[in-house]
Amino acid sequence: MARTKSDILPGTLDLLILKTLSLGPRHGYGIAQHIQRLSDDVLKVEEGSLYPALQRLELRGWIKSGWRLTPTNRRARYYELTRTGTRQVGTEERDFDRVVEAIRRVLTPREA
Amino acid sequence: MARTKSDILPGTLDLLILKTLSLGPRHGYGIAQHIQRLSDDVLKVEEGSLYPALQRLELRGWIKSGWRLTPTNRRARYYELTRTGTRQVGTEERDFDRVVEAIRRVLTPREA
DNA sequence: GGGCCGACCATAGGATGGCTATGGATAGGA
DNA sequence: TCCTATCCATAGCCATCCTATGGTCGGCCC
C-alpha cells in the first residue's frame, strides 16, 4: 500500500520465467513456486505480474502453452520453451550478467 | 525506436546516482558521465531519465541541490547527499546484492 | 453433505519509472 | 561566425509490475 517496493528486480521477470522453463514444461503457478523456492523466498512472483508476463512471452513466440492435467488431477495451462525461446534464455542471461557487472563497476570502483 | 530495451536495469538508477554522489557533490551531467564512464559505456543515463530521477531523490530528502559554477565557468545545479541519503546508499546497496544473489540462485541452481 | 483450504487461471486499473523528443542557454574553439 | 559540447528541463509515451478482485475445482475434515 504505502511504499511500492517491487518483489522482483524489474526487467528480470521474463528471464526468470524462461530459465525456469528451460528445466522443462510447467504451469504458471508452478513457475512462481519454483522461482520463490530457489530464491529462498526473496523473489515472490505475484499472479498479477506472472500471467501478463506469460502472455507477453507467448506473443513473442518464446513459449507456447496448452491445457493439461496436473499429477494431482487439476486442469492447468502448461508452458514450454520454443526453439527461439531457448535461444532467448542465453541472450538474456548474458545481457543480465553484462549489466550487473557494469553496475558493480559503478558501485565498487577499482583503483585508478 | 523499435524495441524499447532499457539502457539501465530498471530500479537501479537511483542507487547508481546516490552512489556516485557518495564520492562528492556533482552536477547532473557529471553524474551521468561518471556512471557511463565507470561502466565502460554499458550504462547510459539519458537526460530524460536523469533529471526526473534527481527530482525524485530530492523530494525524498536523500539529496539536496544548489546552483554553482563549474570549473569551466558554466552554471550548473550541483547535488549532494543528505544525511538520510547517505544511509539510503547502504540500504539500497544491500538490497541490490540480496536480490541479485537471489536471481543467481534461480539462474544457476546448485545441486540438490 | 457442507465447508474450507489450497491450487490454479485471469484481468482491470493504477503507479512507477524508464525513454524519446524537444527546447533552450552558453562557453570555447575552428 | 558557426559548431560542438556542456548543461538543464519537461511533456508525453510506453512497458512492466502491483493490488485487488473474481472465479473454478479437488480433496480433506467433520
What can be said about this structure in brief?
The first copy, chain A, is α+β, with helices and mostly antiparallel strands and 112 residues long. Chain A has a single domain, classed as Orthogonal Bundle (Arc Repressor Mutant, subunit A). Chain A is built from four helices and three strands, in the order H-E-H-H-E-E-H.
Strands of the biggest beta sheet of chain A: in what spatial order? 1-3-2
Low-confidence stretches of chain A: none
What is the H/E order of chain A? Answer: HEHHEEH
Q: Give the mean pLDDT of chain A.
A: 93
| Main sheet record of chain A | 3 strands, antiparallel
**Count of separate DSSP helical elements of chain A:** 4
Count of structural domains of chain A: 1
CATH hierarchy: architecture of chain A: Orthogonal Bundle
Count of strand segments of chain A: 3
CATH topology of chain A: Arc Repressor Mutant, subunit A
In quaternary terms, these chains amount to homodimer
Structure write-up:
Two copies of one chain form a homodimer. The first copy, chain A, starts with 12 loop residues before the first helix and ends in a 5-residue tail after the last helix. In chain A, helix 1 packs across helix 2. A three-stranded antiparallel beta sheet of chain A has the order 1-3-2. The radius of gyration of chain A is 16 Å and the shape is globular. The longest helix of chain A has 25 residues, at 83-107. The model of chain A has no long low-confidence stretch (mean pLDDT 93). Chain A contains four helices and three strands. Chain A has one domain (12-107): Winged helix-like DNA-binding domain superfamily/Winged helix DNA-binding domain (Arc Repressor Mutant, subunit A, Orthogonal Bundle). By secondary structure, chain A is α+β, with helices and mostly antiparallel strands. Chain A binds chain B through residues 6, 8-12, 15-16, 19-20, 34-35, 38-40, 42-43, 93, 96, 98-103, 105-107, 109, and chain B through 6, 8-12, 15-16, 19-20, 34-35, 38-40, 42-43, 93, 96, 98-103, 105-107, 109. The structure holds a DNA duplex (30 and 30 nucleotides).
